[in-house]
Amino acid sequence: MSQGDVTNISVRAGSTSVLLVEDHAFQREYVAQQLRTDIGVEVACASNGIQALEMLSVKRYDLVICDLAMPDMDGIVFIKRLAELNEKPDLVVLSSQPVSLIQLVERLATSLGFRQLSALSKPLNTGELSAAMRRFDRIRRSPELNSPGGAATPMPADSVDVLEGLIGKQFTAWYQPQHDIETSRIVGVEVLARWNHPTKGVLLPSVFLSTIISSGWINHLNSILLEKALRAQAAWRKMGWPLTLSFNIPVSLLSEESLPERLLAIVEHCGGDPATLMLELTETTETDDFSDYLAGAARLKLKGFKLSIDDYGTGYSSLLNLMSVPFDEIKIDRVFVHGAHKSPVAQVALESSIALAKRLNIKVVAEGIEDLRDLELLKKLGCGTVQGYLFSKPMAESALAQRLLG
Question: Is the Cα torsion angle 107, 112, 114, 118 positive or negative in sign?
């Protein structure tokens, strides 16, 4: 790493507080020294999980770096205790354990609601530590880069406030580009909801979506987003960019008989083409009415819409859904993509999914691309389209238009 890189990290991360939990004295001092001198962060140290929890009870730390194999309280129990805190710190695991075990701990951390988890192998590579700290700093400073889970679960917005936002046209569409893996050219966008709150700024769906769904306003929000996205799509087409719109449809809406007609009416009103809309259906669960799922999907296809399985591989009976509905696309969830270059299990899962899709003539989109090594792996396996922060974060319509023009 160049001296310029070290300085840049120090400037950005200077206010970051780190708690290092490591039972091996030499390793603990070595890592602490790297963090203090090369990266420029405030570091406190604990020799085991019990001591670390005592320190966390009196002070909040932005980031916890911990080993897994520790005496008195192992790292896995420590992570579970850490998840019980009101404000979870971000997490980095530093361990010499097998990759398969570290991957399991990553999934555990995600299920416990941690915003991000990076895994570093012993002996420590300074470059990997610096890269992990850059990623942590980038995510901490940009709400748009937060990983699923969140450092703290946001309080749901008040229904009166949300209703005023809907009436006041404060909700809008943002877009995350999807790129052709070979050329990097933007070929489509995923449509995402944002709330331009008059006093709180741009709010993410984690703040308002549960309130909108519980209040029965999801169709109204979807109509707003779809109309805005279709008008933007028409403008991009005039600029020479015929982009596909990927639009999320909650499976619960498939039971509504009016859904296909309602969506088609919006498309026709905006002069759009349903064949340029990829409706992402989250994989149905065992408790969903499968007949409603099948009927709703079939009627959307009848209207000319294209269908995608969202979060492929994480829901109930992926193969059953794929066999039952003529999907046009599968969208591989980030849990299989992030860090796949160092996970033999994830590589097998990706290879099998992509090969199956190719045999069925189904498009493959991989989301959650943050690492160039994961991108190279997906290219080697034959994935066609990718989406993630390595290329683009979600952006407003004006920002995307500037990017297309530039």
Answer: negative
Distance, in Å, from the CA atom of 273 to the CA atom of 15, rounded to the nearest integer, reads 50
Boundaries of every domain in the chain = 3-145, 159-405
**Strand bridging mode 171-180 / 395-396:** antiparallel
CATH number of 159-405: 3.20.20.450
Within a 10 A sphere around the Cβ of 347, how many other Cβ atoms? 16
Give strand ranges (E) for 103-238: 117-121, 171-180, 186-197, 201-203
Q: How large is the angle between the packed helices 372-381 and 344-359, nearest 10 degrees? A: 40
Token pair of 403 as six digits? 């990017």
CA–CA dist 176, 397 (Å, integer): 10
Torsion sign across C-alpha atoms 230, 311, 285, 76 = negative
| Fold agreement between 3-145 and 159-405 | no
Q: What is the DSSP letter of 158?
A: P
Which whole number is the average pLDDT over 111-132?
77
What's this model's pTM, rounded to 2 decimal places? 0.75
Residue 174: Cβ within 10 Å count: 23
SS3 state of residue 275: helix
C-alpha–C-alpha distance, residues 156 and 373, integer Å: 37
Say what the pLDDT of residue 286 is: 53
Residue 326 above 50 pLDDT?
yes
Rounded (10°) angle between helices 99-111 and 344-359 = 80
pLDDT in tens, 206-223: 899 999 999 999 999 999
On whether the CB atoms of residues 43 and 52 are closer than 8 A, the answer is: no
Q: Strands 201-203, 171-180: parallel, antiparallel or unpaired by DSSP? A: unpaired
Separation between Cα atoms, residue 222 and residue 312, nearest integer Å:
22
Question: Would you state the CATH architecture of domain 3-145?
Answer: 3-Layer(aba) Sandwich (3.40)
Own/partner long-range contacts of 162-170 (Cβ < 8 Å, ≥24 apart): 162/208, 162/211, 162/212, 162/215, 162/217, 163/215, 163/217, 165/195, 165/197, 165/208, 166/217, 166/220, 166/221, 166/224, 169/224, 170/195, 170/196, 170/197, 170/198
What whole-number distance in Å separates Cα of residue 269 and Cα of residue 227? 9
**Among all chains, which residue has been given the structure tokens 């490591």?**
22
Rounded to an integer, what distance in angstroms lies between the CA atom of residue 308 and that of residue 322? 10
For the segment 381-404, the average pLDDT, to the nearest whole number, is 96
